[in-house]
Amino acid sequence: MFRNLTPVALFTVNKIGISSPYEYEVDASASYDRDARFNGKVVEYEYLLANYKFSSTLSKIRYVFGSPGQKLIRVRVQDNNGDWSNPVSEYVVLN
Questions:
Q1: Predicted confidence (pLDDT) per residue in 71-83, tens digit
Q2: How far is CA 27 from CA 4, 60, 81, 88, 92, in A?
Q3: N- or C-end of the chain: fewer Cβ atoms within 10 A?
């Protein structure tokens, strides 16, 4: 019997700063499903940016924060079996 392994969320944060000094890119494309050899894949990304939470099929998103200061960024990913990874978090200081 196949036991699904949960996926793993990984991400980096890069300052873009084009449309605003607080424009950042969150890149979760390094996330992976530990069941890849059984055709497992990441199908959904859940982003928490400060207090704004949303899901997307995109592994890279750009977001403009409204103000400077310390911001929490959290990502978790879902595999094609419907299981979610543990969330991973990082604090970014915008100034």
A1: 999 999 999 999 9
A2: 25, 4, 22, 13, 14
A3: N
pLDDT of amino acid 47 = 98
Question: What residues contact 88, with CB distance under 8 A and at least 6 apart?
Answer: 9, 10, 11, 74, 75, 76
The contacts found for 15-21 with CB under 8 angstroms, 24 or more apart, are 16/62, 19/64, 20/64, 20/65, 21/94
Residue 33: the pLDDT is 97
For the chain, domains (ranges, CATH) are 12-94 (2.60.40.10)
86 confidence band (pLDDT: 50, 70, 90) = very high
